[in-house]
HicB-like antitoxin of toxin-antitoxin system domain-containing protein
Amino acid sequence: MEFPKKVYYPAIYHPEEDGGYWVSFPDIPEVLSGGEDIAAATEMAEDALGIYLYDLEENGESLPTVSNPGYVSVDEEGAFIALIDFDYLAYKIKNGNQSVKKTLTIPSWLNSLAERENINFSQTLQESLKEKLNV
């Protein structure tokens, strides 16, 4: 299953007595987060959503259906709705930078030429893949 590049989920910011906020996602009740102010709560909510959605993708599971924010109701005083986005590529670049060993086969004449020119095979492959994938 291919996930969209970017997805937006409505989140409800619930005020806390100490001035912070805890954040819930109506479409994903198991994801909760919070912070000492709106900025921190948003950053933590983005992180919590990212971890959850990345895990779904890694396990081949489907995305939860996204509610129309216009139909999400907030009855709690001081609470409000905001959209939290998740960008798969940005998340993978930020959190998935561990190296993976790949074995490849090239013609011996090409190998000889590249070694003579001191070409870094890993760097060249990475650059070529990024160009090919437009990332």
Summary: The chain has two domains: 6-95, 99-135. The radius of gyration is 21 Å.
